[in-house]
Amino acid sequence: MNPRNLGKMLHLVGLLALLAFTLFPFYWMVSSSLKEQTDLLAAPPVWTFVPTLSHYAEIWQDDTVSKALLNSLIVAACTTTLAIALGAPAAYALARFDFRGKKDLWFWFISNRMISPIVLALPVYLMAQSAGLLDTHLVLILIYLSFCLPIVVWICTDQFRSIPPDLEQAARLDHANQWDIFWRIYLPLGLPGIAVSAIFSFIFSWNELLYALVLTRSDVQTAPVIATSYMSGYELPWGKIMATGTVIVLPVTVFALLVSRHMVRGLTMGATK
Amino acid sequence: MSFLKIDNAVKRYGEAAVIHGVSLEAAAGEFVVFVGPSGCGKSTLLRMVAGLEDVSAGRVHIDGADVTDVPPADRNVAMVFQSYALYPHMSVRDNMAFGLKMIKTPKAEIERRVAEAAAILKLDPLLDRKPRALSGGQRQRVAIGRAIVRKPKLFLFDEPLSNLDAELRAEMRVEIATLHQRLGATMVYVTHDQVEAMTLADRIVVLRAGRIEQVGTPAELYDSPVNTFVAGFIGSPRMNFLSARVAAVEDRRVRLAHPALEGVALALRNGAIVQPGAEVTLGLRPEHLTLDAAGAPVSLSVTSEYAENLGGSSQLYARTADGTRVIVQAAGRHATTRGDALRLGARAEHAYLFDAQGRAL
Fold first, then answer.
1. What is the pLDDT of residue A228?
2. Does A176 touch chain B if contact means CB atoms closer than 8 Å?
3. B86 to chain A: closest CA residue
């Protein structure tokens, strides 16, 4: 075998290993959701089994899961919309204007991401409590926004910077005002970056567990909170948990697949001219 | 009355000035070309006219109105960028219509103007394509079309052809010249390519380091360059320069001392005064040198190095005894062997004299 083929082979093996590593938990979750409790607890684990939809039937018996999914959808959609609506104009300003404190502001945006979320859990809880916001959609949206905005600003700034300034100047000569330039030039051209940051924001808000657990009680519990809520007392209904997990993951997977074309473009932006 | 008037314009970035008090006037319908090497400030000056760069000092007037502090959109100018600056997400039609939409032109009028510009530039079949589906030349045409539809008072071109290959550049040059004749609009064009400047311009403005070196018609610049910079910049291949010393001055005619040079005394052109012994530079254009020195008023002894055969003409590279390179452009094909001794001839009126500071004598 010549070195070129060997290299290709190693590349392929590496990719397959990576694929297996990332997909196995997903496979395990879906397959477990289709197993009877006895198959689930079998040691060594069983690889062939008769699939059952009983766990799915069980989770749809009451409206707990559907209500939680709706809560998750409200929180994730609102967070994403607000993060883009506020973050994209901020990113445009950071990308194209010079103003005092720009560098500090820029650093402040990243530095937010350096703090471990759990450090802030208690202060945030106390603040939410005194503001009377506990167990509301609003409190989750606000706290998720504080996590998602820096990501949106970060990615979109980079994206907007890659748009040639000549376009803005041509538009200025074409009588476009600042808003027109942002709305008609930067926003459509920055779509890959905006799509990527929207996906990140949505997935983050959809999956977030810690703050959802701390800040909600009953009315606005999100899907991940419900999935973990089955782990109570001495019972560990793995099938039900995995079925709920699958139901939670499915919408974001479909969403990510739909926008994956933009996502790849966004993630590789600036790589080629 | 001048249509475009730049009055003592200065551009500073912090402490560093890049345009040092430039004054210039252009008549309505004139095609003015700013030419100069990279970094000479020609694009900056153009952008100051467009309003894309602030003017640090001085004034800019367009059609009699002081526009120094007027925003770019309200100056009624259109600009064609080096990068074309087409909006990549819009079709050719939308690119051309964008400026008109912004000023809320009625739809029917937009369509009419876009169709008119498309017809002029032969863009009809491309109107629904996106810029990425166009060739470089087509993109450039769209950029020009976008300028035309607005019917601006003044067209500004910032090195519009520099991204095109040589053949297309020549083709577009002719198109732009035709367009200028057809529209009769005032155009200011920036280039570093002196061929573009010579072929397109009514008047050329030669810039160096933020200052105007000379303004004139292409013929004036070619025939009477004011200094060695302009003489070297205008004309291709570049003018040959030989350092010499003044041997004698008689009756406003200068006899030069140079080991390779023989010939008659050269007349001083500009009423200049020069003393015997002064250092001067002799300029001879490659196309003015002949390979036959017999009977030529000026003759130059050189040693041949190599020849480039261009088909209908040849470029010969040679050196004088003191090591100065001399290029000769001669009609026809000429085979020379390295080391051949050649005697080059020139007419006296084709010899340019410059003083030690490079100013024309």
1. 85
2. yes
3. A167
Buried residues in A239-252 as b, exposed as e (16+ CB within 10 A):
bbbbbbbbbbbebb
Question: What local confidence, expressed as pLDDT, does residue B121 receive?
Answer: 87
CA A253 centroid distance within chain: 10
Q: Which among A173, A185, A188 has the least Cβ separation from residue B79? A: A173
- Domain shared by B187 and B287, yes or no: no
A176/B98 Cβ within 8 A: yes
β-partners of residue B77 are: B154
The answer to whether residues A265 and A158 touch, using CB atoms and an 8 Å cutoff, is: no
Residue B235 within any structural domain of the chain: no
pLDDT value at residue A98:
87
Question: Is B114 contained in some domain?
Answer: yes
C-alpha span between A82 and B196 (Å, rounded): 52
Residues B45 and B86 placed together within one structural domain of the fold: yes
Residues of B in contact with A188 (CB under 8 A): 89
B98 → closest Cβ in A166, A169, A174: A174
Could you tell me if residue B232 is inside a domain?
Answer: no
Domain CATH code at residue B34: 3.40.50.300
Last residue within a domain, chosen from B192, B226, B260: B226
- Residue B258 is predicted with a pLDDT of 81
Residue A173: list chain B partners with CB under 8 A. 50, 52, 72-73, 77-79, 99
User: Which residue in chain B has the smallest CA separation from A175?
Assistant: B73
Q: What is the mean pLDDT of residues A93-99?
A: 90
Number of domains in chain A: 1
ipTM of the complex: 0.82
Residues B307 and B187 in one domain: no
Average pLDDT rounded to a whole number, residues A202-217: 91
Q: Is the pLDDT of residue B342 over 80?
A: yes
Q: Is A111 on the interface with B (CB under 8 A)?
A: no
Q: Check whether B178 has a pLDDT greater than 60.
A: yes
- Domain of residue B312, CATH code: 2.40.50.140
Looking at the DSSP bridge assignments, the partners of residue B203 are B32
My answer on whether B217 and B122 are in the same domain is: yes
Total domains present in chain B: 2
Residue B21 shares a structural domain with residue B134: yes
Which domain does B98 fall in, by range? 4-226
Asked if B153 and B214 sit in the same domain, the reply is: yes
Question: In terms of domains, do B265 and B192 share one?
Answer: no
Q: How far B154 CA sits from the closest chain A CA (Å)?
A: 12
- Nearest by CB: B52 against A164, A169, A184: A169
Residue A272 binned pLDDT confidence (cut-offs 50, 70, 90):
very low
What ranges in chain A are assigned the alpha helix state H? 3-33, 37-40, 54-59, 64-96, 102-111, 117-130, 137-161, 165-173, 178-180, 187-189, 191-207, 210-215, 223-229, 238-258, 260-267
pLDDT (mean) for B315-337: 88
Same domain for B129 and B24, yes or no, is yes
Domain boundary among B196, B226, B256: B226
For the stretch B192-217, pLDDT in tens is 988 899 999 999 999 999 999 999 99
A170 at interface of B, judged by CB pairs closer than 8 A: yes
Instruction: For residue B72, list chain A residues with Cβ-Cβ distance below 8 A.
Output: 169, 172-173
Domain ranges, residue A143:
61-268
CA distance B216 to B212: 11
Q: Both tokens of residue B5?
A: 């008037």
Residues of chain B in contact with residue A170, where contact means CB-CB under 8 angstroms, are 79, 81, 85, 87, 146
Residue with tokens 């007349």: B267
Q: What are phi and psi of B12, to 5 degrees?
A: -120, 140
A184 contact residues in B (CB cutoff 8 A): 87, 98
Q: Is B231 part of a structural domain of the chain?
A: no
